[in-house]
Amino acid sequence: MIPTNPWSGYESLIGRGSGFEQAKYISIKVLARVKETVGRIVGEVPETGETLTDEDLLVQCKIYLALKKLVEDEGLDAIGNKCQPELSSSVCGLGWAACLSHSLLNDDGIMCACEADMPSCVTMFILNRLTGQTVFFGDLNSVVREKGAIRLMNCGSGPLSMAKDRDSIALWPVPVMMGYPGTSRGATTSFPLKPGPVTIAKLGGGKGTARIHMATGTVLDMPVEPKGLFPERWPQAVIGLDGDIDSFLEKAIGQHYLLVYGNWKPELVELCDILGIEADI
User: Fold this and answer.
1) Cα–Cα distance for residue pair 148/246, rounded to 1 Å
2) Which CATH number is 20-280's, of 3.20.14, 1.10.1660, 3.40.50, 3.10.450?
């Protein structure tokens, strides 16, 4: 098993010196740590011709360091970064996606939501502070009725520390479609989440109607879904819910949900009571 936080031994060098050479040195150190943590790196997808190089990974390490510096300079608690297309597009952005960068930030304890989803960002911050854990940001991708379960899948920024084990972690080339209206490069993380009991939650609602929708369940020991062109490139969890699937879906708040290990429903209900908002269970 990989450590609970694979970055716990990494002392930030941000702010120690300046200039191109210093930035390059720090980025190379981060890249070396990434390579020590993953099981394999897929350099090419023959079906599509998409490739992944050390240069791509190094750029994503630089994006990680830049975002981390921004968080430190501004004293931010959490961020919701909009990767597509502002970072990912070769036409109107940098041309490199932030997937790996987000993964590293979240494993550093800096909660970073994708797609500038601020309700998810706040939910991540709540779960992180409540549990002291890294939080998984995922899309409610599909229902697996034969397992009485739902599938949460993320487009490539899953924290590496939440993987089942090191050997199951793969870095894949970012699908070029993620750079629309151009192309994109970089790595997505791919792995099954480690099995175990979990809580999933999402803050939502409007003025006077705020609520936290929450549920408990168990991440099942299942491999990454192999079907289709992209799913095998992304981190995912099949979660056997403790309650009724249809009831959960009826109450669902958007497509994004946040996951931590353990049953934290009592604490979330108490927090909702303190905040004066609805605990939707």
Assistant:
1) 10
2) 3.20.14
| Residue type at position 260 | V
pLDDT of 216 > 50? The answer is yes
pTM of the model: 0.90
Residue 261 to residue 159: CA distance in whole angstroms: 13
What's the pLDDT score for residue 19?
A: 58
Length of the chain, in residues: 281
With 60 as the cut, is the pLDDT of residue 3 above it? no
Is residue 32 within a helix (H) or strand (E), and if so which, with residue range? helix 20-37
Q: Which residues are bridge partners to 80 per DSSP?
A: 113
Asked if 107 and 134 count as a contact pair (C-beta separation under 8 A), the reply is: yes
**Which three-class secondary structure state does DSSP give residue 236?**
strand
**CA quadruple 30, 222, 128, 123: dihedral positive or negative?**
positive
Q: Give tens-digit pLDDT for 222-274.
A: 988 877 667 888 999 999 999 999 999 999 999 999 999 999 999 999 999 99
Choose among 70, 234, 225, 209: nearest CA to 155.
Answer: 234
